[in-house]
Specification:
Largest sheet: 4 strands, antiparallel
Number of strands: 8
Structural class: alpha+beta
Strand content: 25-35%
Shape: globular
Distance between the termini: 29 Å
Order of helices and strands: EEEEEEHHHEE
Length: 164
Amino acid sequence: TVVEGRALEDDAVVLLDLEDGVRGVMMVSQIATGERNHILLRVYGADAALHWSQEDPDRLRMVDSGGTETVLFRGGDVGPHATRATRLPGGHPEGFIEAFANIYSEAAAAILGVDPVTGVTPDFPTVQDGALGVDFICRAVESDRDQAWVKMTAERSTKSSERT
């Protein structure tokens, strides 16, 4: 923690060594002055980059390796699942409450046993997803404490002293 006396971690940087040689960095902070619960996702590849900001959620920027920028806006032809999760037409802000409405709708569909779009398993976080999230945080703390890489899969986590 950066704040003296605080019992929980409030700032972290996690190095990720993913499948197929993909590397990543996750930075989280509860103490970033001027950021109001801001979520910013950036994905960089050899051919393009994607940028999305919670503070401008209707826009997804893609920049190719030549510098050409394409901006995708919410509300276009995005497929049945995304259309079902969109509550308002493009240009009208959607937010936090609507995200929970989507989770509750999916939970109701699971209780009824039917996905209204495809008939497959509803799309919402499960108890197992929550447990994996908690396990991820525990493994990140363990990795920092032991100064070693920790291998993690959807089924289980194992400690690893070597990079894969």
